């Protein structure tokens, strides 16, 4: 569903501004600058006004959602197999820190997922990969991101 399609579901009356913002946030997972501009034009208000309404609510996301989530197991068995080093190398290579995102992906540590004999284990968007090395993880991420 596009921003315009969502807007057209709301009468262009001031009382519908917030419902429209929430609907865009829910459908597109964020409210971009482009969306703020379109909302402003649709409702005949300034972009500053639309942003002030939207920013009042914590639930509205103004950051482009990450394309993928990378989780690296930091359970004891994966740590023995060098998962901490993989985390450090991924942080350095992609200039990202654990529990942050760089507009392309989120990097997290995860608890043991029971695949200890096949470690180090990583999960990308819910898919588990085993016997990982730094090079393999970097290659997987690049493939996911279409490098
Ligand atoms: S410690 Fe990593 S899967 Fe168990």
Protein model, in words:
With 147 residues, the chain is an alpha+beta fold. It has two domains: 3-55; 68-145, Glutaredoxin. It has seven helices and five strands. The chain has helices at 3-8, 17-28, 33-43, 47-55, 76-80, 83-94, 134-145; strands spanning 68-73, 100-101, 105-110, 122-124, 127-129. Strands 2-3-1-4-5 form a five-stranded mixed β-sheet, with helices on one face. The protein binds FE2/S2 (inorganic) cluster. FE2/S2 (inorganic) cluster (FES) is lined by residues 73, 75-78, 112-113, 115-116, 119, 121.
Short description:
46% of the residues lie in helices and 14% in strands. By secondary structure, it is an alpha+beta fold. It folds into two domains: 3-55; 68-145, Glutaredoxin.
What is the residue-mean pLDDT, rounded to a whole number?
Answer: 93
> What structural class do helix, strand and pairing data support?
alpha+beta
Radius of gyration: 20 Å
Could you give the order of the helices and strands?
HHHHEHHEEEEH
CATH topology of the largest domain: Glutaredoxin
Low-pLDDT segments: none
- Strand segment tally: 5
User: Per CATH, which architecture of the largest domain?
Assistant: 3-Layer(aba) Sandwich
Q: Give the distinct bound molecules.
A: FE2/S2 (inorganic) cluster
Measure the end-to-end span: 27 Å
- What topology, given as strand order, has the largest sheet? 2-3-1-4-5
Please give the largest β-sheet.
5 strands, mixed
Question: Can you tell me the overall shape?
Answer: elongated
**Name of the CATH class of the largest domain:** Alpha Beta
Q: How many domains?
A: 2
């Amino acid at each position: 569903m596009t921003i315009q399609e969502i807007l057209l579901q709301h009468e262009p009356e001031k009382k519908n501004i917030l419902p429209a913002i929430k609907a865009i946030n829910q459908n597109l997972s964020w409210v971009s600058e482009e969306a703020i501009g379109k909302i402003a034009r649709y409702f005949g208000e300034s972009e500053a006004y639309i942003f002030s309404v939207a920013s009042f609510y914590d639930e509205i996301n103004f950051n482009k959602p990450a394309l993928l989530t990378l989780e690296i197991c930091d359970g004891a068995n994966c740590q023995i197999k060098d998962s901490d080093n993989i985390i450090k190398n991924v942080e350095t290579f992609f200039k990202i820190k654990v529990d942050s995102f760089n507009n392309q992906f989120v990097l997290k540590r995860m608890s043991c997922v029971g695949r200890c004999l096949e470690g180090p284990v990583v999960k990308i968007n819910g898919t588990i990969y085993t016997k990982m090395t730094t090079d393999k993880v970097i290659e997987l991420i690049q493939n996911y991101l279409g490098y």
